[in-house]
Specification:
Order of helices and strands: EHHHHHEHEHEHEEH
CATH superfamily of the largest domain: HAD superfamily/HAD-like
CATH architecture of the largest domain: 3-Layer(aba) Sandwich
Number of helices: 9
Shape: elongated
CATH class of the largest domain: Alpha Beta
Number of domains: 2
Structural class: alpha/beta
Mean pLDDT: 93
Largest sheet: 6 strands, parallel
Low-confidence stretches: none
Radius of gyration: 19 Å
Number of strands: 6
């Protein structure tokens, strides 16, 4: 069956996001350099983030709270109020960062609109994601925008059922194998992986998880319209 609806991830698929977190994390490590090595700070921050996902979810606000908790833990409570304020300001800088579209995104979306319905399925903080869509100028191009707390098989099942979508006519496009590809493939739908230059450690998957999974891979989003034209002809 020909693809009827294309869903996109947002962060690191439509616009740059991970680089903002990497920059903030580097500043955070410099702030805590007098307490521990960069490698140890990275490790403890990741452990704190992973532990806090069930409480704060994904996004800048949860990341900022995890930085504060990590700073208190690694300094054994010696970190000053001024330094905590610096961490809070890092979070605010992340929220105020301009939205930089990936190369070719706008042209790709405009071309696909001629033949397909388009939607977004992205996870994160609702307020933050809504602000990014407003700044991106892309919001009006999408039929639906779904901001979810997590992306797994159940999430996609609910969305497909809500909009009465046939998995065989549904395509998900994203940079995360864990969130955008494997759950969709498990439902019998189509998926295209377009890797970003860096991948958050929480989104990485073991090579064995990809065995016998049928999905496509493109190196650049600008290749998507031609790929889909050939796919539907086939």
């Amino acid at each position: 069956m020909a693809i009827d609806l294309i869903a996109f991830d947002a962060d690191d698929t439509l616009w740059h996001n991970e680089t903002i977190f990497v920059t903030a994390q580097q500043k955070f490590k410099e702030l805590l350099a007098k307490y521990h090595t960069e490698e140890w700070i990275d490790r403890k921050l990741y452990e704190t983030e992973a532990r806090n996902l069930q409480h704060f979810g994904y996004g800048v606000k949860g990341f900022t709270l995890s930085m504060i908790e990590t700073a208190i833990e690694l300094s054994e409570g010696r970190i000053s109020g001024t330094e905590i304020r610096t961490v809070v300001e890092l979070g605010k800088e992340m929220l105020k960062a301009p939205v930089a579209l990936l190369d070719g995104v706008q042209q790709c979306i405009d071309e696909l609109l001629k033949s397909y319905r388009l939607m977004v399925i992205t996870k994160g903080d609702l307020f933050d994601q809504e602000a990014k869509f407003a700044k991106s100028g892309l919001g009006e191009r999408f039929w639906r925008i779904e901001v979810v707390s997590d992306k797994n098989k159940i999430t996609y099942e609910r969305i497909l059922k809500r909009y009465d979508l046939d998995p065989r006519q549904f395509l998900m496009v994203g940079d995360s194998l864990k969130s955008d590809i494997l759950p969709v493939v498990a439902l019998g739908a189509h998926a295209i992986h377009i890797p970003y230059q860096t991948t958050w450690i929480h989104e990485r998957v073991a090579p064995g998880e990809l065995e016998q999974k049928q999905y496509f891979r493109l190196e650049h989003i600008g290749l998507l319209p031609d790929f889909l034209a050939q796919f539907n002809r086939a």
